[in-house]
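Q: Please design a sequence for this.
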């Protein structure tokens, strides 16, 4: 079988994993490699391949894998009869599975089982032991019983990947969980075009019952903005972090003011690495008229913001430096203009022929011309500054 045939066969297999892998976790290589020995003592320098023996995974890894396999089988049987399976029972067996793993690995959870958010903390600390098949079943159970507090750490912790993410966006949208959709866009790296299109349509034309969870996203932006403002005036954080926080205050102000709650969710998508020059045109090409208009007005708001606040700049390392997360979700001017250009390329005839589209494009053109003029002036000043610096260095020599 050729490599192409192998890839093709893998791509058409079932979306859901039906069995647990033999080695579903990342094995500890130290104990494995240290036990490997040459299969024969005779040295053959002419051969590049030296056969070894003694392959054996550690006892801890073996026990963790066995726990996962038992939990997988048990949960799979339970989910086949959802009428006789309850939310409480699922949380009980899920907690038990994670607790056993924490004991095997010697990981302290730090809170008691009776404490609020216990399962969430378990997932955050021990969730990495779950293989893809286990995660897939856990996701199924969480959506069936609407256990959102477990889904969040699974997504944010990067535990949902590959085949597990196949139906995640669709199920989140069906359940009107805008917050989970935002988490997917931010933390799941291999979203499909169909997923991104669904997210784009969902945020551009959200159903009425989706606004409740969208308000949670608004509150998160507010919390981040308040944190940035406090840090900006806090003298104990140091001058560097204080200046970074001041930059973030401007960025978060731009991202929050005058944007509707669904547009705040759109920020996640526009700043996502999932959105590139290939995927985005494929998505916007399938938008209807009202959705295109909504996207144009959204991009126009960003252009107006950057026109009014040209000092706004995005430091890519800032969030990691001082702990503010929302500022990295603020689309840059470059990203906004690129998206606007792609919309024009994809829907040029519609934008020209329809009066309402044409008016929006003309108003956006005025903003873009203003930004271009300012950019030219800045380039001239930058060139002049560079030239003066060169002259000063030459004079010093």
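A: Design:
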């Amino acid at each position: 079988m050729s490599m192409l045939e192998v890839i093709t066969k893998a791509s058409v297999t079932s979306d859901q994993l039906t069995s647990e892998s033999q080695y579903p976790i990342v094995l500890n290589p130290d104990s494995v490699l240290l036990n490997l020995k040459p299969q024969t003592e005779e040295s053959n320098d002419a051969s590049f391949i030296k056969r070894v023996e003694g392959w054996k995974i550690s006892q801890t890894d073996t026990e963790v894998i066995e726990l996962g396999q038992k939990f997988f089988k048990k949960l799979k049987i339970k989910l086949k009869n959802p009428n006789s399976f309850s939310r409480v029972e699922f949380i009980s067996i899920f907690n038990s599975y994670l607790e056993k793993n924490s004991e095997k690995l010697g990981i302290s959870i730090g809170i008691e089982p009776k404490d609020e958010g216990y399962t969430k903390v378990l997932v955050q600390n021990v969730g990495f032991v779950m293989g893809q098949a286990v995660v897939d079943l856990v996701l199924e159970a969480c959506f069936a019983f609407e256990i959102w507090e477990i889904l969040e750490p699974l997504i944010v912790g990067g535990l949902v990947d590959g085949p597990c993410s196949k139906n995640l966006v669709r199920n989140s949208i069906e359940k009107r969980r805008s917050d989970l959709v935002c988490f997917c866009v931010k933390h799941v790296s291999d979203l499909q075009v169909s997923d991104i299109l669904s997210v784009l349509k969902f945020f551009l034309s959200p159903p009425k019952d989706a606004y409740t969870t969208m308000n949670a996203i608004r509150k998160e932006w507010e919390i981040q903005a308040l944190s940035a403002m406090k840090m900006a005036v806090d003298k104990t954080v140091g001058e560097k972090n204080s200046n970074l926080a001041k930059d973030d205050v401007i960025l978060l102000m731009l991202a929050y003011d005058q944007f509707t709650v669904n547009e705040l969710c759109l920020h996640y998508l526009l700043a996502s690495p999932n959105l590139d020059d290939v995927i985005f045109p494929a998505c916007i090409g399938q938008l209807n008229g009202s959705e295109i208009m909504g996207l144009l007005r959204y991009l126009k708001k960003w252009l107006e913001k950057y026109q009014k606040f040209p000092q706004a700049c995005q430091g890519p390392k800032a969030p990691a430096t001082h702990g503010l997360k929302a500022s990295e979700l603020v689309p840059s001017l470059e990203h906004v203009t690129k998206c606007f250009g792609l919309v024009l390329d994809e829907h040029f005839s519609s934008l020209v022929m329809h009066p309402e589209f044409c008016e929006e494009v003309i108003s956006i053109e005025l903003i873009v011309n203003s930004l271009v003029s300012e950019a030219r002036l800045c380039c001239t000043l930058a060139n002049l500054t560079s030239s003066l610096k060169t002259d000063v260095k030459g004079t010093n020599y």
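Q: Thanks. Anything notable?
A: The longest strand covers residues 37-38. Residues 316-321 have pLDDT under 50 and may be disordered.
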